[in-house]
Specification:
The chain has about 250 residues and is α/β, with parallel strands linked by helices. The protein has nine helices and eight strands. The chain has a six-stranded parallel beta sheet with strand order 3-2-1-4-5-6, sandwiched between helices. A two-stranded antiparallel sheet has the order 7-8.
Length: about 250
């Protein structure tokens, strides 16, 4: 594996930086506070299955592109119907729960630390409007936040990752994609981005056939790895010799 020389870090958002199931779960409880835990989990699974299925249908060309806002509203209607709730206002409130997702405990501090040496780019399947809301709710700070809406498709379509390449003005191999989902990192690899897997309880772990550049238990661990490899220092991490170079445009403001 070649040396890892990075000019910017690209982050997945949903699941990697925010606990998406926790936010949807909270919305379901608000929809009907009488629901017990097993029923809440059933309804959460119904929501997730709908989003996964419909995004896949869009990727496969079976359905025209629709923003995450539309898919969330569809999922909210399905959940409300299953829960026996027919209040349109309650359904609309549930649909917006995807914008009220709590950050993982290490997220805010991890982003602040990594923003010192690198420009940070958020890259999410959430719509532009949803991304604005969840960034504000979770306290996420970026140099740039990009939505798959601009590509009119969803990750892992390579055109979504191309958004980050275009905005950065750097070749793909100079960008490090960070995600808790192996499928997301594989999509980034298909365009030539370097990859870092961060473990999360709701993520998609790598398989034995995956070859990601970095692995960490949390953002602090990943930042430690990058710190140890920064500048002229060379360090063996996960069997690869890693060297990082500060990007000349990394001092941009929030």
């Amino acid at each position: 594996m070649s040396e890892l020389e990075i000019d910017a870090v690209v982050f997945d958002v949903l699941g990697t930086l925010v606990d998406e199931p926790a936010g949807i779960r909270a919305g379901i409880r608000e929809l009907d506070p009488s629901l017990d835990d097993p029923r809440v989990e059933q309804l959460l699974a119904l929501w997730q299955q709908h989003i996964d299925r419909e995004q896949r249908r869009i990727l496969d060309g079976v359905r025209p592109y629709l923003t995450s806002d539309v898919l969330d509203l569809e999922a909210a209607r399905l959940v409300a119907d299953a829960a026996g709730v027919d209040d349109p206002a309650a359904v609309a409130a549930l649909a917006l729960s995807g914008r009220r997702l709590p950050p993982w405990p290490d997220t805010v501090a991890g982003l602040a630390r990594l923003a010192e040496p690198f420009p940070l780019i958020g890259l999410s399947n959430a719509s532009r409007t949803a991304l604005l809301g969840l960034n504000a709710h979770a306290g996420l700070r970026w140099h740039q936040a990009l939505s798959a809406e601009d590509a009119r498709t969803y990750k892992p379509d390579p055109t979504v990752y191309q958004l980050a390449v275009t905005v950065s003005g750097r070749p793909p191999e100079r960008l490090l994609m960070v995600a808790a989902h192996a499928w997301d990192l594989r999509g980034a690899q298909s365009l030539g981005l370097r990859t870092a897997y961060v473990a999360r309880p709701v993520g998609d772990p790598p398989t034995s056939s995956d070859g990601f550049d970095l692995h960490a238990d949390d953002l602090a661990g990943m930042a430690d790895q990058l710190d140890h490899a920064y500048g002229s220092i060379r360090r063996v991490i996960g069997g690869a010799r890693v060297g990082l170079r500060r990007a000349p445009w990394s001092a941009c403001s929030w």
